[in-house]
């Protein structure tokens, strides 16, 4: 039941079996061929493959057939999996071999006051998670941040990256390729522009390692997270480089991007949006909302997030940024694997002027308000709750606003957890809420 492999003529097994164009499209077939029970039997008998079901019936029926197959093979009742709210037909652009939905509890924290360049106001944070006490913790942080006048948030850099790797004969040839790329960046930008009316190639940074040349291409992808956009555009960039230089493309992604992996380059150079949020909370608010002092929170942050993280060799110097990033990502239809880069965060805290100054700096937050999972039913609703779904005016402003709100939420989460540690209330909160 694996994906079909192309034969020598480029035709897949499925195409050769079904003939040109295959059978009728969604809803096609006739008689008992469209009956879910019958189709499930045909799959189990090897007559039809799981990925071919949409050629026989509509997407929702195909998902039902797959559930029947899995139920018969494993003995597991998938009725809960089959109770989903999104449109199956639309979801086929997000998933293959659809069987249903994986449902998570979703809570709401806030509102949190945000003073950003794209987001300005008070915002609720939809958080999808299975970790008890998380939403309560973030909610407490949001309350304190709002009571202090809100979080100031700024995006300092934008750029989705893709970094192809090329083979060259030797270092001299590689140096020549690097020089050519540096002299022809406008030509590469023009090539990238032929693939999209939304994205823009901002820069190309070449790196030579022996007989390998890497080109870290950075794109402004507006309101889209933009990974697919960057990949398609980079394909055209690579074609120009191959045509004009002695370099030979080995892989469209050479891991210098770096995508969905912990990487120092993303901590330093950024990826997606680099965003920073800060707040100064009066001493009385720290005492009232957190039951501790600015000095205790600052010491906990220094010893835990800075010294402890350094001793561990961590790329993230924070308490729980990934919790907030992941919860909002899942709720709003972001690519959940980008939590790896999104949790690349440095948290600072210090007692200042009688209060508590705190900040979070997320180097590589990758969010979008169009494309991917943002159009699914509950995820679209969650984006509407925040107030920034779809394309912005000007383009890119909605994704900027979402990034600013996520950063404010991460700041709230950091403040709450650090305060729980400083006041020694962490274990009791989890006993009460997170068992």
| Global structural class | alpha+beta
- The total of beta strands comes to 10
Rg estimate, integer Å? 25 Å
CATH architecture of the largest domain: Alpha-Beta Complex
Task: Please tell me the overall pLDDT.
Answer: 90
Distance between the termini: 40 Å
Helix count equals: 16
Assess the beta-strand content as a share of residues: 15-25%
- The low-pLDDT segments are 1-31, 427-431
Largest sheet: 10 strands, mixed
Keywords:
single chain; 435 residues; alpha+beta; 3-hydroxy-3-methylglutaryl-coenzyme A Reductase, Chain A, domain 2; Alpha-Beta Plaits; 10-stranded mixed beta sheet; 16 helices; 10 strands; 20% strand; globular
Summarize the structure.
The chain has 435 residues and is α+β, with helices and mostly antiparallel strands.
